[in-house]
Design brief:
It is a single chain. The chain is α/β, with parallel strands linked by helices. Helices cover about 30% and strands about 25% of the residues. The chain contains eight helices and 16 strands. It has helices spanning about 50-60, 70-85, 100-110, 140-150, 190-200, 230-255, 265-275, 320-330, and strands at about 15-20, 30-35, 45, 90-95, 115, 125-135, 155-165, 185, 200-210, 215-225, 260, 280-285, 295, 300-305, 310-315, 335-340. Strands 5-4-6-7-10-9 form a six-stranded mixed beta sheet, with helices on both faces. Strand 15 (about 310-315), helix 8 (about 320-330) and strand 16 form a beta-alpha-beta unit. Helix 2 (about 70-85) packs across helix 3. It is elongated and about 90 Å long.
Length: about 350
Amino acid sequence: MRKLCPICNTEPSSSFQIDFAVPSGWTLPNTSYVKLCPACGFIWHDNDSTQADYDTFYKERYGYGADTVYDKQRMMELSASISANYSRDIKILDIGGGVGYLETCLRELGFDNVRTLGVGEEYDNGYDLVIFTHVLEHIYDLDVFMDHVMGCLNDGGHVLVEVPASYLFAEQDWPHILDYHQKHVNHFSRYSLDHLFTKYGFTNLIKTIYVFKLTNAACIRAIYLKGGIESTFDKIKMHVINHLDEIGRKISQNIKEPVIIYGVGDLAWALINYVQNPPIQIAGLVDNDPAYVGCTINGIPVTDKVEGDEPLLVMASGQKQNILKRIKELGLKNKVIDIDELELTN
């Protein structure tokens, strides 16, 4: 039974009941209670079945007609997208991939380390990308499934998931029972999908909506990073500090004389104080932005024209080409030092 929201353990705010005439001997429930979570927007089925019951059904009864031309086209499009965004040497696991059509497509594109995991098969580990397309809506025990995903995925690895966009069904004109049957026991919005993955330490990287041609139904495709916010923050920290260190060492090794900094935007703000061994010897600050002109930085006034013959240090990024063009148009004779052209000696 799943009386509370399987994602956030909140009491449902609304529900309705569906009764089914199930063939005898099938391990599917006769009654499901469809419930809505007011906290995360998740919609789920509550019944007296277990994950083992559903696994038995999928192993014994499910799969006929599942490899339609539409499904094959979807797998071809998905494999092409993976090929465009991932290197060929990564290790990939496709969970619930049926007869392995996606694996076949990926191998044809040069991915040699791909495995398709069927119902009841043993999970292994060490994967860089785990895929489950139109699988998550079938999983009754979400916690156990997500634990498996966490266990088989490398830190910093990605999950690519596709599910029906159930929150859009009310706007569509096709038989909704085709999704609200016993086999689709989870119905996701973009928010509730994020909420599930955040719960297990993932961070969303990409989320899009596409239309599944077989039913003309909207679906969510998302990619999540294992490691979550802390991992993402650590990478950001590493990139920022390493970038500042690299540029700071370039300046310290190559610039021994006073310079006029031309362009005092964000990068200059960071580097003026960051470079301390030795500090930058600033002879002047110049910028064309009226917002800067007349201000002072560390007691040095910002002007809109060059008033000395010291070298011009250009450390801007987005505006660099405009600054270099401006220096040329003004006919300035000062030596120009482009920070991107400085080299490290060690």
